[in-house]
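Q: What would this chain look like folded?
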Amino acid sequence: MEASVKNKIFHTQDLCLRTNLRCAKMGIIMIRKAELKDIPAVMDIYNDAILHTTATFDTEIKDYEDRLAWFQAHTGQYVIFVYEEAGTVAGYASLSRYRERKAFDPAVEISIYIHAGYRGRGIGRSLMEKTLQYAKECPQIGTVVSLITSENEVSIRLHERFGFSYCGQIRQAGVKFGRKLGLNAYQIIYDREIE
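A: My prediction, written as structure tokens:
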């Protein structure tokens, strides 16, 4: 290998390390806060989950206006992260308001969705790690809640691996694809004073 090619490779690897990015197969991978330009990709990922999975209890696809309003609601402690690989959004995670009533302000609900073509590659794990690090450092967040379809064993294992505690199950909470579905509740509590 020529010295100039080696130098370019080492420079790229060093750049990725120095900027907290990971390189994979000549593409740059990064997790960053979502931007307005990401709404169509995030919308497509979520709509695919609506149509083909029980990961969400939504049954009707969302349009751009709906996702724009959802995006705009993520301010303050509420945040959306996207996992981008070589310019393509492969998945996203969000910390959203848990309930509308004021007393619920310190509680956020985590959601993670991965593009169908990128599942099984550890992207959910990477998004979970980034999102929980943010939650841990955010003084307005007291607990992270996750409501998981009882049959979603992959998501349940992911949450347990990251220290979520099982809180209970709502049996027959919904019906999708002709099946009655339970809903498991998980949470992480941060023991601190809430600002």
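Residues 2 and 115 are 38 Å apart (CA to CA).
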